[in-house]
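tool=predict chain=A
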Amino acid sequence: MKLILQQLVSEIVELRHHLHAHPELAHQEYETAALVSKTLKKFGYEVTEGIGGTGVSAVLDSGKPGKTVALRADMDALPIHEETDLPYRSTRDGKMHACGHDGHTATLLAAAGALMQCKDQFQGKIKFIFQPAEETGTGAAAMIEDGVLENPKVDAIFGYHNSTKSDFGVFKTKMDCLFASQDVFTVVIHGKGGHAAYPHLTVDPIYIGTMIIQALQGIVSRCSAPVEPVVLSVTQFHAGNTHNVIPSQATFQGTLRAITPANRAMLKEKLTKITTNIATSFGATVTINFSYSFPPTFNHPQETQLTYDVAKKVLGEDHVTLLTDPGMASEDFSYYLEKIPGSYFWMGIGPKEYHPHRPRYEFNDAIIPIAAEMLAQVAISYLNKN
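tool=predict ok
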């Protein structure tokens, strides 16, 4: 396996650089999907395109009876303007692979190329899933709805994410909850505008908004148990357009994160009640909308133990860690894990100064053959064990 991947890595790294230079946002990954399909066909695969919009899949059949395991990579970029000096930096203003999805796609292509040459090492089938729109939390659900877990029916699924906070080549995972849920909230406060010199004749949505935002932090400190972390972050506030007019409307937006379904529901309920009641007490009304919502990522115990055991063999025990605390980031891989068993894990590419979702983030190409071997060996181990 290592030798095959070494033979593939130069081509795959070049492909990764092309993807990095030509990023595409969620549900716009047409060129990316076309390049993925072309590469898979070159490796000898029959390809299914257009799943969930721009998703791609392919199946490797060993020709021997057995289960079907899936490996997944995400393909979308972020609306961030790149500030690196890389020779293959983004050629598209305001778009960047700032989370390493280009690296994830390249990794899975490397695994697919290597596994095509190793069909004699396993029984059953391996399905490769190249998914759009992870960043918006809509890609996995769209592919599932389009039947990506059927024909053949997938029995388990695995995937990975690069980590800039871990030493290079270090594997990390966690039993049960690995990542938090995500719910984006948008609150519009409808007040009564007027001259800034006569605030008593207005219903000031800016003042009301500041009161609401301060009160919302009480949900985190007083409504959730300290041992069950939750996050409520307000990230935008928009109101008014001149210095001497109190506007009639203000809008703020942010994110909710929780590691349990109960706390996820509690956050939304409390936010709604506090926002509505404070606004009403000042004579305003509110419109509240929740979007980009997906559940916590819960790893399944048997599949997580399998990835942990494979990592010790592939990477060595000194490069393997089982985490005790969940991360408050979110991953729409959670949708797959609600449907079927599976597990998600970290692979260290750092430590790096610039973390994902920042304009100077860099993926580390050296992790591609290592992560590809991990994915391939996890698939082989699952199929042979079952």
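The chain has a mean pLDDT of 97. The two ends are 21 Å apart (CA to CA).
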